[in-house]
Amino acid sequence: MGCETLMVLLIEDDPINVKLIQTLLSPPQPSPLAEGKSFALTCAESVALGIEQLEVATFDVILLDLIRPDSKGLETLVQLKEKVQNVPIVVQTASEDETLVVKAFQMGAQGYLPKKNLDSNLLVYAIRLAIERQQYSAKLEEIEQQQQEQEFQSLELLANSIKTSVTARMFGAEPLRESVPDIFQELLQSYGDLLDLALEERAYKVEHNISEKLRELADKLGFLKAGPRDVVEIHTKVLKEKSQHISLSKAQAYVAEGRLMVLELMGFLTSYYRRYYIGISNINISNKLDG
Hints:
single chain; alpha/beta; Rossmann fold; Globin-like; 11 helices; 10% strand
């Protein structure tokens, strides 16, 4: 069985630490934890040079020194994660601040290495553990992405299956997407804006009075003689659009918040039609009494 070579990108400006890492990853230094794997090290003195390397080569892991002249600490980690979401990052720092380490993991690091007392066992273990964590995270994201796609498909099937809703039978209404396409686009925009505000409410503990805005949207939908199919279609289209080109965690946040919003919107639309029918009934009763 051949020896697998792991490609390591080291972003470090201190030549002493660069030399140490090179030595620890070079034969015969690697520990038994390497389990037959070898390491090919590429060095970059700055984040900008590291990003250039990432654009022309593929790496299995990144070793990132958080404290460098061009570094802004954890902001550098975020910058790298935006460029390479699928490559695990192991942060290095001489700081013994545990809060910094915890924040680094919260912001996407898959490993941590202290600069003090670093040896080959600790280095190889951190590299291999970070790669395994990344592989596990990727598999978990794949499963969650499949579940999310299944939810979208179920919503689309639901929208397409509601062919003879109460409102459609009563008003002979076509889907809003077909009958008033320009207004339908405005409704998509309004619902999408509300979804963003709902996420902002949850993240920053601010108050945007989402329920009242949903009630206003429901009244507009009712005036347009919209039915459940239209609500589901608006919800599904907005979610699919919002979930593109963002992290899985944010996409999941949209889906979770959207579930609550669409139910509340349905409830308000039902209330609108209840008020409408009560009004119609009162008019009919009044006409009969007058007659």
